[in-house]
């Protein structure tokens, strides 16, 4: 059982910028499940795409792996295919927690944890690259170059799954806050988390993402999941 996320339950005079530190890592499974609408469904969708598109003896990249939910899901879904799964995250706390989890797991393929900024990571021989709610944390100016590197690192017929919080109408944002309330977050928690993320998470519009993916070369891009201002896209090389 993971610890309950209560990081913003106390009223602060000043809210510090959100960081993926030890405190966040220790409540992360609860935080992401209660904050990202459809998180479990998205993981199931990723499993389905992995079963269909991951090829034996290739690589899979999990960019911004946190505690490795995507890596573990893909590993389970594909069975032993001699695939190298690269779980990349630049948070020391996240990588440490994921390594501890891996010590207690039997995996069927190799999962390599990498403490690295994904902007510097080498991506090659990949049949699948997944960024499940990570590129939203990069400075907007660096997002296109990352998409280009992902495209270049994919094998022909490889796929990129990109999940993002997207810029949307105030009404959609209000609905999303209602969803967080239903999941047990108070108004103060919702308001303070929003403030903490203000400079850290800069959402792009869905059409900007679609344009960027088309411009770097992906030939078919589709939204396969959406709930409020949270989307997941699949892009084919
Ligand atoms: C999941 N995918 O459970 N380089 C590498 N990692 C980064 C970078 C960067 N430049 N910037 C942020 N991160 C996961 C959830 S969480 C999403 C992903 C969220 C990492 C950061 O340390 C964190 O672990 C992850 O991206 C984003 O399916 O918390 O909303």
Which helices and strands, and how do they pair?
Layout (H helix, E strand, L loop, with lengths): L21 H14 L3 H15 L5 E5 L5 H10 L5 E6 L2 H12 L6 E6 L10 E7 L10 H11 E12 L4 H13 L4 H11 L8 H11 L3 E8 L2 E7 L1
Parallel strand pairs: 1-2, 1-4, 2-3, 4-5
Antiparallel strand pairs: 5-7, 6-7
Helix pairs in contact: 1-4, 2-3
The H-level CATH homologous superfamily, spelled out, is Vaccinia Virus protein VP39
Termini Cα gap: 39 Å
Compute the number of structural domains. 1
The CATH topology is given as Rossmann fold
Count of helical regions: 8
List keywords for this structure.
237 residues; alpha/beta; Rossmann fold; 7-stranded mixed beta sheet; 41% helix; 22% strand; binds ligand GEK
Explain what the structure shows.
The chain is α/β, with parallel strands linked by helices. It has a single domain (39-167, 200-236), classed as Rossmann fold (3-Layer(aba) Sandwich). The chain contains eight helices and seven strands, in the order ααβαβαββαβαααββ. It has helices at 22-35, 39-53, 69-78, 92-103, 143-153, 170-182, 187-197, 206-216, and strands at 59-63, 84-89, 110-115, 126-132, 154-165, 220-227, 230-236. The chain has a seven-stranded mixed beta sheet, with helices on both faces. α4 (92-103) links the parallel β2 and β3 (110-115). α1 (22-35) packs across α4 (92-103) and α2 packs across α3 (69-78). The mean pLDDT is 91. Bound molecules: ligand GEK. Ligand GEK binds next to α3 and β2.
